[in-house]
Amino acid sequence: IVYAGVGKTDIEIIEALDAGVGYFNIESEEELENLIRLAKQQGKITKAALRVNPDVEYKTHAFLKTGKKETKFGVDIERALKVFADYGNNATVNLCAIHVHLGTGGKKIDPYVEAVEKTLPLIDQLRSNGHTIEALDLGGGYGADYESGTVPSAAEYAAGIVPLLKDKNIKLILEPGKSICANAGIMLTRVLYTKQGGRKKFIIVDAGMNDLIRPSLYDAFHFIWPAKVDEKFVPRQREKDLRLDGTEVVDVVGPICEGADFFAKDRA
Amino acid sequence: IVYAGVGKTDIEIIEALDAGVGYFNIESEEELENLIRLAKQQGKITKAALRVNPDVEYKTHAFLKTGKKETKFGVDIERALKVFADYGNNATVNLCAIHVHLGTGGKKIDPYVEAVEKTLPLIDQLRSNGHTIEALDLGGGYGADYESGTVPSAAEYAAGIVPLLKDKNIKLILEPGKSICANAGIMLTRVLYTKQGGRKKFIIVDAGMNDLIRPSLYDAFHFIWPAKVDEKFVPRQREKDLRLDGTEVVDVVGPICEGADFFAKDRA
């Protein structure tokens, strides 16, 4: 188990120390100092991975990019050497892994390959400086297959990444949670009213942006389907531009007094 | 008291009937039919205001505009005549008022003047068709004075609107809540970590976008100030571009694993 997060509080860190997590993913020197302080105080020894930003271009929503140089996440790759020089021999927190996270929702393997290619020289350098680097956490963010066949398979990721790492004597940690289970999540909501407004038809449901903010925040696409539906309207493929005979184009909106409170616009 | 909202549920409507609200603001024919059904069922008689969209241009964030023709809110002004023709003589729900809401956060009086000018002919027409129109609810959305002196005063609104309405024998309802009390709200948060990331400095606090989403959703500006601060750093004016000697430029961000989880960027 790795414990990731940019703003871990003291109480959370102590609970994680008690639980014996595998690695604390470290985002800044200050956080590492705080972890050392708390571990000493609790009489614990733990392992940590330094999160580095390989400064890789990753095509997704601007809000979902995390691997560029100047983000709130992690430290830049140049700074990593200094962090290891300063804290790499600490007896309380064993800094012995690297964490990389590029963002969420990307649909290409290339940025992961590039990130590994940029990180390996750092790992070599750290090792030649006398540091043990036992693991590389290549993060989460692997795109979920929201629409049929739009994201690479695990085998395709492996084909890109494994050859780069297989002779490096390093443990590879992956966090593919969303790509495995995102499509298992559904939101159930009830239609309250339908309404004609100008040329548009609106379906007003009893769930709002407070229940699912992704459409307004990221312009995210989510399939919307009746709970009870005639067989002929059941789609065989998860296609965004699905057009079935007998459907009409509507906006699906929530009950909140905000124009941002919508789930779909001009959807058939 | 008026009860506004685009997705009123049956339970909420029954509670409002029991509480004896002044007017139900009605957003669609279906909602009105539902109110009539529930009021009959509960043995209640109530008043309602029809929300109409005067199709006025209102300069604010796209998500905050509500008075254009094709929104999930209200009915277009042309449709209002038909709604009154169909439901204006209902004995259970007395449709006897007009509701207009242009959006949130605008800083000009003109759209309100234009909305009244567009709504008055409708009121005249409805009255000559035999309907009683006793009230005009000119909504909320009046801009809050987040920065000193950037929004019109109540007197200025009155100077624009009152002359148009004073001989019309109509009750004017206003909902100026936010403009009165928005600046009374503060969010208290604690700094967890500070961090240098590339050329940027980040202040990581323990509140997140789940506590205050306006910066990421609307790019909203909020003042940020230390809870304890030296007298010389206390601003005398609420100015967005405040630059005080001895401050540095930082990003203030939350603990959530999202690039969208920020409160301020490049703020001194």
Automatic annotation (TrEMBL), chains A, B:
Biological process per Gene Ontology, one example term: lysine biosynthetic process via diaminopimelate
UniProt key word Lyase: yes
Keywords: Decarboxylase, Lyase, Pyridoxal phosphate
One Pfam family named in its UniProt record: Orn_Arg_deC_N
Required cofactor names: pyridoxal 5'-phosphate
InterPro entries for the chain: Ala_racemase/Decarboxylase_C, DAP_deCOOHase_LysA, De-COase2_N, Orn/DAP/Arg_de-COase, PLP-binding_barrel
GO MF annotation list: diaminopimelate decarboxylase activity
Keyword Chaperone among UniProt keywords: no
Domain Orn/DAP/Arg decarboxylase 2 N-terminal as annotated: residue spans: 1-182
SUPFAM superfamilies: Alanine racemase C-terminal domain-like, PLP-binding barrel
PANTHER family reported for this sequence: DIAMINOPIMELATE DECARBOXYLASE, GROUP IV DECARBOXYLASE
UniProt protein name: Orn/DAP/Arg decarboxylase 2 N-terminal domain-containing protein
